[in-house]
């Protein structure tokens, strides 16, 4: 699965994958707590939130070529051109984890963002999320510090470690996923 995987923009026809993923409480956090009642709601989320435009480049990670099953997401959002910054996030369905796919997807999305002219990409993970920390670090995002009790899930608050990668930082020794860009 891993070697043939690609990044491509989300399609509303990917709604079934998102609907199933939102049933996982950990993954649901990646959608800002959005809960989808049906495929129409998931498709609407893709259309309004998993956008691909000058403000956000939300990539679906597929398990093969661009028409293969979607197994995750990597998003470059909050693109701010004045300062050349953006926020990055990622997730994979459990069956696709543990093969380096998230790291390769993140490197590909970062390469694309830097090629656009962005200078600084930021991300944050709960300090009790070592997998996300490993993905960020392997993809060349340096840890920059802890934001105390930044996130609240239920009654519990979580410290968040911020990472960032600059366009001028050395690139990681990771083979990026192939990107299938939208037709101009
Ligand atoms: C974070 C996530 C995308 C990682 O996916 P993954 O498939 O395990 O990522 P990779 O295979 O690229 O693994 C990258 C590294 O994480 C390490 N890792 C994975 N799970 C780990 C764990 N539980 N503890 C410590 N390290 C872990 C791997 O060993 C690997 O390190 P290495 O390259 O030095 O061997 C996945 O766990 C996920 O979707 N989690 C839920 C959503 C989430 O937390 N997203 C990030 C929000 S900030």
Summarize the structure.
GO terms for molecular function: protein N-terminal-serine acetyltransferase activity; protein-N-terminal-alanine acetyltransferase activity. The chain has 184 residues and is of the alpha+beta class.
Q: How much helical structure, as a percent, in the residues?
A: 25-40%
Low-confidence runs:
none
Mind telling me the CATH superfamily name? Gcn5-related N-acetyltransferase (GNAT)
Largest sheet, if any? 8 strands, mixed
Cofactors, ions and other ligands in the entry: coenzyme A
How many whole angstroms does the radius of gyration measure?
Answer: 16 Å
What is the CA–CA distance across the termini? Answer: 28 Å
The strands making up the biggest β-sheet line up spatially as: 6-7-5-4-3-2-1-8
Number of domains: 1
Q: So what's the CATH class?
A: Alpha Beta
Q: Which CATH-level-2 architecture?
A: 3-Layer(aba) Sandwich
Protein structure class = alpha+beta
Provide the CATH topology: Aminopeptidase
How large a portion of the residues is in β-strands, by DSSP E? 25-35%
* Apparent shape: globular
Number of helices: 5
Mean pLDDT: 94
Pfam families: Acetyltransf_3
GO cellular component, one term: cytoplasm
Domain N-acetyltransferase: 5-167
GO molecular function: protein N-terminal-serine acetyltransferase activity; protein-N-terminal-alanine acetyltransferase activity
């Amino acid at each position: 699965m891993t070697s043939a995987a690609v990044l491509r923009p989300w399609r509303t026809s990917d709604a079934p994958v998102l609907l199933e993923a939102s049933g996982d409480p950990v993954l649901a956090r990646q959608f800002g707590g959005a809960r989808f009642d049906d495929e129409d709601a998931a498709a609407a989320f893709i259309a309004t939130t998993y956008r691909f435009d000058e403000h956000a480049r939300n990539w679906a990670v597929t398990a093969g070529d661009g028409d293969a099953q979607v197994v995750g997401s990597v998003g470059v959002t909050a693109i701010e051109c004045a300062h050349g910054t953006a926020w990055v996030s990622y997730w994979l369905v459990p069956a696709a984890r543990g093969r380096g796919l998230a790291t390769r997807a993140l490197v590909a999305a970062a390469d694309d963002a830097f090629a656009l002219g962005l200078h600084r990409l930021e991300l944050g993970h709960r300090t009790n999320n070592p997998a996300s920390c490993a993905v960020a670090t392997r993809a060349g995002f340096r840890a920059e510090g802890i934001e105390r009790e930044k996130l609240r899930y239920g009654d519990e608050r979580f410290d968040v470690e911020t990472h960032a990668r600059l366009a001028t930082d050395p690139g990681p020794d990771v083979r990026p996923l192939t990107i299938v860009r939208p037709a101009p």
